[in-house]
Amino acid sequence: MTDVTLQDIGRVAWGPTMKLAFGRSIAASCVITPLMLMFAGMPLIAGPVYFIALAVTLPIGGPIYHFMLKGLARIFETMGLGIVALGFNLLLGMVALIASAGDPIVYFVNRRYPELFEAADLKVFNFRVTIFVLNNRDFAPARGIEDALS
């Protein structure tokens, strides 16, 4: 497993990356929506709306949210406000937890049908918001924007 920097962005296979992102978000929606219906007091009619909203916004908004929070955390860290940076990193951790809720489902689907997601070395639980599939079919998690700038 390798890390992706902004310099490696040309090696990303965007088709398999987007298929994996949508697969993870649909699987996470399958796990989180019933939990929300059972424990959060959500009305039954809101279940399909929540499922679709999470399945569509997570693969698109996840990377944006990831780089935005990591960038803000880096700015506040350089300003000497480490506690604020810790807050941004905790928010990012919550988004990563939501994104990875369906990873066991994606793992078993990928084991059965490896051509579906085209991702090698997929783990049962990946605590990452975004996972990039590289052209050489390696599997790589996204790195924060501060790692690419330093």
Describe, in plain words, how this protein is organized in 3D.
It is built from six helices and two strands. It is mainly α. It has one domain (6-144). It has a two-stranded antiparallel ribbon with strand order 1-2. Strand 1 (131-133) and strand 2 form a beta hairpin. Helix 1 (14-39) packs across helix 2 and helix 2 (46-78) packs antiparallel against helix 3. The model is unreliable at 142-150 (pLDDT under 50).
Protein topology:
Blueprint: H1 14-39, H2 46-78, H3 82-99, H4 103-112, H5 114-117, E1 131-133, E2 139-141, H6 145-149
Antiparallel strand pairs: 1-2
Helix pairs in contact: 1-2, 2-3
Shape: flat
Protein structure class: mainly alpha
**Describe the biggest sheet?**
2 strands, antiparallel
Q: Name the poorly predicted regions.
A: 142-150
The domain count comes to 1
Range of strand content: under 5%
**Fraction of residues in helix:** 55-70%
**Terminal-residue CA separation:** 21 Å
Strand order of the largest sheet: 1-2
SSE order, as H and E?
HHHHHEEH
Structure annotation, total helices: 6
Cα gyration radius (Å): 16 Å
Mean pLDDT: 80
Number of strands: 2
Brief characterization of the structure:
By secondary structure, the chain is mainly alpha-helical.
Features:
mainly alpha; 150 residues; disordered C terminus; two-stranded antiparallel ribbon; 6 helices; 2 strands
